[in-house]
Amino acid sequence: METGRPIVAIVGRPNVGKSSLFNRIAASAPVTVPNTVDDLADMGDEAMQDDKPRTVAKRRASRRFAVVHDTPGVTRDRNYADAEWDSRSFTIVDTGGLDIDPDDRLIDNVQSQVDAALAEASLVLFVVDARTGIMPHDLIVADKLRAADKPICLVVNKVDSDQFRNEAAEFYGLGLTEPMWTSCVQNDGIRELLDHIVEILPETDETAPDAPATIKIAIVGRPNVGKSSLINNLLGEERMIVDDRPGTTRDAVNIRIVQDNIPFEVVDTAGMRRKSAINDELESVTVKRAIRSIRQSDVAVLVLDVTQDVAQQDKTIANFIERQGKASILVLNKWDLIDKDNTTHPTFMDVIDAQLPRLGYVPRVFVSALTGQRVTQILTTALEVYREYCTHIPTPALNDLLLALRNAHPPPRVKGARPALKYITQVETKPPTFLIFGRNVHRVQQPYESYLINNIREEFGFHGTPIRIFFRRS
Fold first, then answer.
1. pTM, rounded to two decimals
2. Considering the domain boundaries, does residue 38 fall inside one?
């Protein structure tokens, strides 16, 4: 009996609907998302002071886990997602199109990614296109799969009408299993396919102890700053396709990493160029996926290239991370290419402080993806930051601090009235969010709010995480 989730790999030639099928299957698992502080505010004062975490159910049916586009070769790296059907859990893997005899070194790397997915799979879904019928590449791929000696499920996709179902009978000629007919566009045949998948998958140990919560990390930055190279170095394998041409990573790709028994889910995202520089629909979609990855992450890792000046786009991404309330780390890559002396490091720190002032509280890790220098420090720092992100401060300690701050520097008068801050409590984590009750609290100015935040940080830490303060009249 296997332990852990069995892996189901989706393979096939380009543009047969693998990513669409991946999205349909990945959407089969339920997900919950935390309420925002606005949701809590709507529940009234009692809910605001409730220390219990709250979650609300959210449907996944409309979520897209992989970019879908008519352009062949959109999926290049392996993309993983957890799925669940009929109380059975498994991991689904989307792969790049199997293109035999590639004429591009990048496509050659895609084939390596597919081979790696096949090696770890418990079941292979071989996807073909009912509209085109059997193509020469399908025959070659079928031979490749037979050589892999894995359970195979033949999925005939794009069966959007009875006409295509009748014409698709030729796929019996591949000599594989009984074909499963699907239409991802119409969501037809997906339930039957899932029933078939859980029948074939090996039994797993359902009594295994629950693993600790997975920390989600989004690796973001401009194109060609070394994001995929950093992940490969963390993994110790060529998991992510790396190429010196910008835009190699087209989708947000999820990778599972365990370090010191702590599970991480690292998301390698497409390079985020400024909006005015994007003139391609596909790139626009992938940048939106990168933005979504930041929103869904616990920790955002912004990668900068130290051989280049901090660009306006770096500042834009940094500001977006802060506005989303995400814990974050600044990773300064290609540090091995800098000539150094005793002043180099502090000079860089001063430049970062000046150029990215909104992330002044964020730790910086100077690394080299090429040599591996300090790369493992990224996950160590991410864990430290995540723990700060989840910290909850007892209410008495907060009110002791508020009293001391108020006595040392009372809020300034505004239009003849001085705000009176009476009581503070922490209402949320991720990010740490505080609610202050008092009179005339609408007159509290930004400098005084910053004074409160800076002293909360100095007293209680919150290294690498933004702090939010809201005010309510009492």
1. 0.63
2. no
